[in-house]
Write a structure and sequence with these properties.
It holds the Pfam family ABC_tran. The chain has about 240 residues and is an alpha/beta fold. The chain is built from 9 helices and 9 strands. It has helices spanning about 50-55, 75, 90-100, 105-120, 135-145, 165-180, 190-200, 215-220, 225-235, and strands spanning about 10-20, 20-30, 40, 65-70, 75-80, 155, 185-190, 200-205, 210-215. The chain binds adenosine-5'-triphosphate (ATP).
């Protein structure tokens, strides 16, 4: 039988991470399927970033495992961080770099990089040094760099954490565009309103445990756990 031409669903079984003798994440079981964005929310220190890194493969689990439906999972996924690290080169050079690393034929690189810069509204700044961009523009460039690779699965770790409302809105529009194109987005956020705007489903973490994986329309109106209910009311701080 041929392997499916997709890495989804991604499945975590008994996933855990401990460091310094302390459990940070325990016994997480979940399935990430194709579809609208999966938003990971929860109080500070709940383990959202650690979960994202485990799912992406940046961190090795100390318990359990992450499995994918098909081969080449590393090539089919990408991640954007809260503070993107950009090359000290032009915007275009930053967009081209991952395409070269991925072995994309040279004739295809420039059109793909340009299309990605257009999608995030940075085509006019292609020759500008990337480090001179504003914070919001830098985050859009990081998204363009990831999008140019056409990942099937894109992890976003608090991409709007240090952005103002206008820059946040621009990033959300890019996320919605990518999701509409079929890229599966898995994203952490502190911003409940943002989670409501973007989520197809919510993964609610509390103290290193996944308490809910619930469709968004249900989660925000009728969460199934008391902790999620308290969190939505602003009563659960840790
Ligand atoms: N590699 C690591 N080694 C040891 N401890 C870690 C490691 N990564 C994270 N931690 C700890 O694990 C806990 C969860 O961290 P994580 O960054 O995942 O939380 P979070 O839910 O994303 O929090 P925040 O909302 O504040 O960003 C924290 O107490 C953090 O200090």
């Amino acid at each position: 039988m041929r392997a499916p031409d997709t890495m989804l669903p991604l499945i975590a079984e008994g996933l855990g991470f401990a460091a310094g003798g302390q459990a940070i994440l325990s016994d997480v079981n979940l399935t990430i399927a194709a579809g609208r964005p999966s938003m990971i929310i929860g109080p500070n220190g709940a383990g959202k970033s650690v979960l994202l890194r485990l799912l992406h493969g940046l961190l090795a689990p100390t318990q359990g495992r992450v499995a994918h439906a098909g081969p080449d999972a590393a090539r089919r996924q990408s991640m954007v961080f809260q503070r993107p690290v950009l090359l000290r080169r032009s915007v275009m050079a930053n967009a081209l770099y991952p395409l070269r690393l991925a072995g994309v034929p040279s004739a295809e690189r420039e059109p793909r990089a340009r299309a990605a810069l257009e999608m995030v509204g940075l085509a006019d700044l292609a020759d500008r040094p990337a480090r001179r961009l504003s914070g919001g523009e830098q985050q859009r460039l990081a998204l363009a760099r990831a999008a140019a690779l056409n990942p099937e699965l894109l992890f976003l770790d608090e991409p709007c954490a240090s952005l103002d409302p206008a820059a946040t809105r621009a990033v959300e529009q890019i996320v919605a565009t990518l999701a509409a194109r079929g890229t599966k987005i898995v994203m952490t956020t502190h911003d409940l309103a943002q989670a409501k705007r973007l989520a197809g489903e919510v993964l609610f973490l509390h103290r290193g445990r996944l308490l809910e994986q619930t469709p968004a329309d249900q989660f925000f109106f009728a969460p199934t756990t008391a902790e999620a209910d308290a969190f939505l009311r602003g009563d659960l701080l840790w």
